[in-house]
Amino acid sequence: MVGAVLAVLFMPLLMLLTLLSNAEEAVKRALATTGEKARLRGKDEDDRRRDASVAEQGLDRVFDGNWHGSAGQFLLRWYSHSTHHQRLVLATRDGIVLAAPPQRVTVGRDKHMQVVARLPATEAILVDPFSGEFETRTVLIRFRDGSWLRVETEEPRSDLHTYLIRQPLPDS
Known about the structure:
Elements: H1 2-31, H2 34-57, H3 70-81, E1 88-92, E2 95-100, E3 114-120, E4 124-127, E5 138-143, E6 148-152, H4 159-166
Antiparallel strand pairs: 1-2, 2-3, 4-5, 5-6
């Protein structure tokens, strides 16, 4: 009840701030120099191409959709290892290591991390689906059978992306 009352009180303020943010963006675009306008148009075009590529490759889904594939089976076992929704993904020479806290913790979860799964390089590899072309948070765990599982990093162009860009392309 208290949450609903507070939400009603702060909703007009939130709507005003959103409106002001949109107005600020419109004014910035209107006052931009020719070079800045070209850069903004290029960024908008990159965003459209990225979104089209995401839809084309099906990357708007968590995994490839095949529950009988390796990715689907791994996803079914995913939460049996830990109920916490976040995973720490480490790329090693031998494969992929996933760590997670054993339960849903909010404070100090990094201290409680435990290895919950190891995927050998012969079974799965990490792949940047855009090969560094776009700045995204998406990384794929691609299994030997061609199935994949999407993983989101905490920031665009993370250390994991940098590592993947430096690796030779897999033979697939």
